[in-house]
Amino acid sequence: MSSAVASTNQAADPVARVPPPMAMLAELTHRCPLACPYCSNPIALTTADEELSTAEWIDVFNQAAALGVLHLHLSGGEPAARRDLVELTRAAVSLGLYTNLITSGVGLTEARINDLAEAGLDHVQLSIQGVSPEGADRIAGYKGGYERKMAVASWVAATGIPLTVNAVCHRQNMGEIEAMIELAIRLGARRVEIATVQFHGWAERNKAALLPTREQVEHATRTVAAAREKYQGILVIDYVPADYYSQYPKACMGGWGRVGLNVTPSGRVLPCHAAETIPSLTFKTVREDTLSAIWYESDAFNAYRGDAWMAEPCRSCERKQVDFGGCRCQAMALAGDARATDPVCIRSPLRERLTRDTDRLSAMSPATLSYRGR
Ligand code: SF4
Ligand code: FES
C-alpha cells in the first residue's frame, strides 16, 4: 500500500474497520446482442476468450460468500450469452447467495428460464427500452427485441420468480415513463426501476442526443410521484432522477468500497462500474489476489474510503456521510480529478459550468445515435 493511501485511511487495521461487502455484481460477459447507445460498459470490451471460466466464476462466488456477500447480481453484457448461466446460478444458490439475473431477455428461451428456476434463481431484472416495438427496438438497435422481452416476462411470471422491469430513461423516451410503469404492471412485475441515463463508458458519446431537458425531468418527477400514489401496494417504483439537474450528488455505490463490488468478465475487481476511468488507480484481478485481500487491502478500494481523502468543500460539509462527496468517476470525468467534489453539488465551484453545459447540450436538436459496437 502506498504511504499516501496508508496515511489517509483505515489501512492500519482495515479488516477491523471496513465492513464486508453486501452485494457483488458479476459481469459474466461483455457479449451482448443489443447495441444500446446508453451502454455504460467501457469503450474497450473484454473478448470471449478473456472471460473467466466456469470454475473461476464459481471460485469467485465461493470467495464472495465467505467474505460476507449476500446479494449476487448476474449481469453483463448479456449474461444469457454465457452457456454456463444455469450452472453458475446453481452454484451461487448452493452457497446461499441471493441471485438476481439482470438481463435484456434476448438469448433466453422458455426452457432456459425453467432451468434457471429449477436451479433456484431468486429474481429477474428485465430491461426495456421503450413501450412500443418500433421505439424500443430503435433504441436497442435490435429488431425483434421488444417482442422477445414480452415473451420472457410471461415465461418468468409463469415460474413465479419475482420480476423487476428496469428502464433507462433519456431524452428520447422520457415521455414514456407513465406507459413504462403501466407496462410493468401488465407484465406482472412487482417493481419497476426507472433510472435516468448516466454518462459513463459508451453513453458519453451520446450525451447530446440523450441528455434530458429540464422540462422533461420536472415532468418525470411529477409523473413518478403520481404513479407512486396510484399504484401503492401494487408496484414498487424506484426512480433515479437526473443528477445533472439535482442540487446534490447521489451517494454513488452507497460510498466507495462500502457496500458492494463489481467483477468484470476477465475478473478485475472494481469498486464501481466505471472505476477504470480513474487513471491513478490500478485494479487487481481474481487471478492475481483473493477477493478478501482486494476488498480490504488494495490501494484502489482504500483510495476513497472514509473522508480523509476529501478536499473542501466536502471535508467540512455536514452531508459528507450522506453522499460521500458524490461519484468519483463523475468527478474524474467532469472535473478531471477523482478527489474533487462531484460537480453536480451546488457547493462545487464547477456547478455553474455544469448547469450551462447541461442546458446547452439538452437544447441541441437530437444528434444521430451512436450505437454500441459489438
Ligand atoms: Fe456532498 Fe461534498 Fe456537496 Fe457536501 S460539498 S453536499 S459532501 S458533494
Ligand atoms: Fe464510479 Fe460513481 S461510477 S464512483
UniProtKB/TrEMBL annotation:
The keyword Metal-binding applies. Its cofactor is [4Fe-4S] cluster. It catalyses: [PQQ precursor protein] + S-adenosyl-L-methionine = E-Y cross-linked-[PQQ precursor protein] + 5'-deoxyadenosine + L-methionine + H(+). [4Fe-4S] cluster binds at residues 32, 36, 39. Binds 1 [4Fe-4S] cluster. The cluster is coordinated with 3 cysteines and an exchangeable S-adenosyl-L-methionine. It holds the Pfam family SPASM. It comes from the Bacteria. Pathway: Cofactor biosynthesis; pyrroloquinoline quinone biosynthesis. Keywords: 4Fe-4S, Iron, Iron-sulfur, Metal-binding, Oxidoreductase, PQQ biosynthesis, S-adenosyl-L-methionine. Its EC number is 1.21.98.4. The keyword Transferase does not apply. Interacts with PqqD. The interaction is necessary for activity of PqqE. Catalyzes the cross-linking of a glutamate residue and a tyrosine residue in the PqqA protein as part of the biosynthesis of pyrroloquinoline quinone (PQQ). This is PqqA peptide cyclase. The gene is pqqE.
